Amino acid sequence: MTEPMKPSYWYCDACTRCLLHGEYRFNCTVCDNYDYCEQCFTTVDPPHPHRMVPELAYGREETKECAGVDMATAIRAAIAMYSDRHCMGTRDVDKENPSHYMDSYSWLTFKIIGDRSKNFGHGLRRLIEPRGISDNGTSIHFMGDIEKAGSIKKYDYVTIKPDDCLTIINTSGSTGFPKGAMISESAFRATFPRWCLPSSLERITLSYRPLAWAADRDAVITTFLSGGRTGFSTEDPSRLMEELALVRPTYFGGPPSIWNKIYTEFKTSLALLTTRCPPEAKADEEQRLLQQFSKLIPNRCRSVAIGGAMVSPIVLDFMKRCFTHCSVNESYGITECGSVTYNDLVEDSLQYRLESVPEMGYTLEDKPFPRGELLTKTA
Description:
Blueprint: E1 7-11, E2 18-20, E3 24-28, E4 35-36, H1 38-43, E5 52-56, E6 64-65, H2 71-81, E7 86-93, E8 101-109, H3 110-127, H4 143-152, E9 165-170, E10 180-184, H5 185-189, E11 195-196, E12 204-207, H6 214-225, E13 229-232, H7 240-247, E14 251-254, H8 256-273, H9 279-294, E15 303-306, H10 313-322, E16 327-334, E17 338-342, E18 345-346, E19 350-355, E20 373-378
Parallel strand pairs: 7-13, 12-13, 14-15, 15-16
Antiparallel strand pairs: 1-2, 3-4, 3-5, 6-11, 7-8, 9-10, 16-17, 17-18, 19-20
Helix pairs in contact: 2-3, 3-4, 8-9
């Protein structure tokens, strides 16, 4: 750590000492915002009744405005500003049994991620050389080898124009055959803040969907630019709820299929519990079960979002009654433009208009409200 004596945002709930920037705190996985310093964690008797996990304490960084408005400049600014914060983590593997995962995550700092990504980029650039068609065969390169090559030879950064293609994001196929959407620099950059703003509110994300899609890629980049950290899930979808409990994100978004499954399990459990209950006891049993199911979303999660498709009003009502410690939000978007609406409000970064679709019977003259196709454009 570059400034070991700087105070952090956290203090020890046992001895009330303010923890220092770069010091590890031991955070309770059950109690809300409850931490011990390392000394109290090992000496307090009796020990805290719940599981506590080590997490990094950090203090305020100097606010920096991006020198440019392009994504590369914003990413470099975040790496410099949050260099010693935890950035990305993966679940630990049992060394004695590699097929088994441990109940812990290992984290890399912004500086390490920044250095490795730069080396990887330089290494890829080294491979992009003019060659004949006869030399265009398939070859396999290991990531570590590319990073090593990139650490030896450096290249100048490429200047990208606002209308140049920055990235290709795959669509899910929900509205047609899946395709790779070409996203320009200006369109992609409009989704994210220009400033890297330090905050005492820690942003933690669990990434479990393919980064080829927009949802998790946007969440990871937003978390990155705000100095937060992202834990990546393993390849097994059956471990999702288990890893959700390990990472304990402050935000969690999911498609209706996840929320529908939780709701179905809730209804099944409720039916079994209330089969022989008198009518006056059913409401109490339902409330007790709601509290039990609410623990599926970790206590420090402040927001859950539904995206990818519409969710039924019944499931939405269940979510609001169950996850009362979170705000429950609905989002709608398309890969080409990003987020379109959030809780039925159109995003400020979009231009939009309604257009009649006569072949479907939708017109702007329909009563009591105009109907048609919503056209959107990134502003």
